[in-house]
Amino acid sequence: MEVPVVWRGRRVHAFVPQLLADRDLSLDHQAASRCGAAGTSVDRGAEALPDDYAPLARLLLRAEGVASSYIEGVAAPVVDVILAEHAGPGGHTPAAWVAANLAATEQAIVHAGGTERLTVEELCRWHAALMAGSPTPAQHVGRLREEQGWIGGTSPLDAHLVTPPPGELAGLLEDLVVFVNDAGISRSAVDPIAAAAIAHAQFEVIHPFADGNGRIGRVLVSWLLTRRLRLLTPPPVSVHLAADVGGYTAGLTQYRFGQTSAWVTWFADAVSGAGRAQSELVGAVDRIRAGWQTKLAAHGRARALRADAAAWRVLALLPRHLVLTAPVVSEALGVTGKAAREALRTLADVGVLTAYDSASGTIGSPGRGRPARLYVSEELLGLAGSSPLRR
User: Fold this and answer.
1) What is the pLDDT of residues 101-119, one digit of tens each?
2) Which residues lie in coiled coils (predicted)?
3) All domains of the chain, ordered by start, with CATH?
4) What's the CA angle centered on 273, arms 71 and 255, to 5 degrees?
5) pLDDT tens digits, one per residue of 327-354
6) Quick check: 69 and 215 in contact, CB under 8 A?
7) 215 annotated to bind ligand
8) Is 247 annotated as a binding residue?
């Protein structure tokens, strides 16, 4: 429904969505079928993860964070994002903001793996984590907005959508968290994929924060899929949303106008693609690793490289560490700085890693805060989201 609000002496109408508790959430046959297919795709992606899933989970989460930020126009070289992750919160750069998106997603996944119910306070904690890398004023970080919001345009007067007044936010969000907590256990249980689609769209309409709503809405998708499907790590749904931003925006608009099945159908197809992408990523990493072994083995035969040489042990650090430096290798493997440098040079010589030197600009332009020399696997960087439009 629309409610009148006053904006700087002018009357406008804000949209207040119907409570989910009161909304008809029944789906047509096509939407229900697509949700079933999406659930199967996600299950297969989860089953593809090896027992030592943590490094691959990190790759998937980084791809999710990079793509989710890309949708909002926030982008940075993956190398700089990874370095910003190591640096921790702080720094108002695009890379720091993308890294903060990853941190917020990780925080949500940890919460989803537990048993505590989702609360509005937890949503605010995610927002605080996300905004740690942003220039957003402190009074707007980790708390609900106290001013009128809008989407599109320069003010509510020419906006695409005038979002609910601040006084409506508490009730709308309480309704939302009740839905995501209980959607799978009530008599009228909602399919997990459909629940994620509905919760995300409802959150987008509520727009409870001064900034970062889209990204927190997609973090909510990761939380809900992880909790409802009991996943170790969620599929990178944002990668597929980023590949069709027009369809994504149109679907959210359909939801707002009551076309729930149309939106859920579109969203379910995106989740299906994300599940397939997860399976493909596992296979791609296996092939990349096999190639590394072949290259280093050939080099070892030619140079009489010992089987326990540090170069072999560095391979085990990938893909957990997408950016390597001699100090990182030295600390991780307990070897001298000289041995670490030799191992990295060996892997660069055989084509496993690419060396980056600030003076020569081997990989793009030097970024502020980058070490003088670092090594990356270009193959893994591609999987980590160097191209958010990659399907």
Assistant:
1) 999 999 999 999 999 999 9
2) none
3) 2-280 (1.10.3290.10), 305-385 (1.10.10.10)
4) 60
5) 999 999 999 999 999 999 999 999 999 8
6) yes
7) yes
8) no
